[in-house]
Amino acid sequence: MNTSTSHQGDLIRFGYHGSLEAAHCLVRAAGADPGTGFEFTQYDLTDPFRMLRDDELDVMIVKFAMREPDLSVGPCLAHDARAALLSDRHPLAGEASLSIEQLAAFPAFRRPGQMPDYVWDMVVPPHSPAGRPIRRVHPSSTVEQMVSVLRSTQAVHMSLASLAAVAPPDIRVIPIPDLPAAPVMLTWRGPAPARRLARLLGPGTAGSR
Q1: pTM for the full predicted model
Q2: Which residues are CB-contacts of 8 (< 8 A; sequence separation ≥ 6)?
Q3: What is d(CA 173, CA 162) in angstroms, rounded to the nearest whole number?
Q4: pLDDT at 9 over 70
Q5: Given a cut of 50, is residue 125 above it in pLDDT?
Q6: Position 60 pLDDT exceeds 90
Q7: Contact assessment for residue 151 and residue 87, using Cβ atoms and an 8 Å cutoff
Q8: 70, exposed or middle or buried, with CB in 10 Å at 0-12, 13-18, 19+?
Q9: I need a surface site. Which of 17, 28, 36, 45 has the fewest CB within 10 A?
Q10: Which domains occur in the chain, in start order?
């Protein structure tokens, strides 16, 4: 679909990463129909804000805190629980839940591309609460690359429970109770959301940062 035509047709160009159904649920919770008036595009984790800054998206889902001075962020709309992704052959694969201290014994993933350092530190902490370093050594440029590493090594990825909707059958998604759930928000470029976006954010959010 042509992006400029979509924009002129007043479609909301909506960026997401991971589960498309999670993005649809967020829109439904705001009282809108994701099948009408929206164009959903998965953004690239290696440069997550590029499409917004290049006017290829109107709004995108973000999780965790944001400190991007040129982008505005709305209120928390939901929470996404934390979970570990690992192979079904991993030594921890049989656990019902996992702690950071358990996961710190295994290699994790380094920051993808231009993902801001401060965001990745919230996704994959540099150390456990007890001070144990988390070895962020594996590349994570794409989901496919990450899954390949998980299948072929004892790597773990500290991620989000919503990825259970898109994880392959041989990748376990196990809750991490000692990491707080990630706030789910919308971000856009400019001082205030366009009028057609305000319904997703609720009253009193226009112009918020």
Answers
A1: 0.84
A2: none
A3: 9
A4: no
A5: yes
A6: yes
A7: yes
A8: exposed
A9: 36
A10: 3-78+182-201 (3.40.190.10), 82-175 (3.40.190.10)
pLDDT band at 50 (very low <50, low <70, confident <90, very high): very high
C-alpha–C-alpha distance, residues 102 and 128, integer Å: 9
Q: Around 181, how many Cα atoms within 13 Å sit in the side-chain half-sphere? A: 11
Q: Which helix (H) or strand (E) holds 78?
A: strand 78-80
Helices marked H in 9-142 — which ranges? 20-29, 50-53, 100-103, 117-123
Length of the chain, in residues = 209
**C-alpha to C-alpha distance for 43 and 52, rounded to whole angstroms:** 9
pLDDT the model gives residue 196: 62
Q: Which of 61-65, 193-197, 201-205 has the highest mean pLDDT?
A: 61-65
Tokens 């790597």 belong to 155
- CA–CA distance, 67 with 186 (Å, rounded to integer): 13
Summary count for the chain: helices (H), strands (E): 7, 11
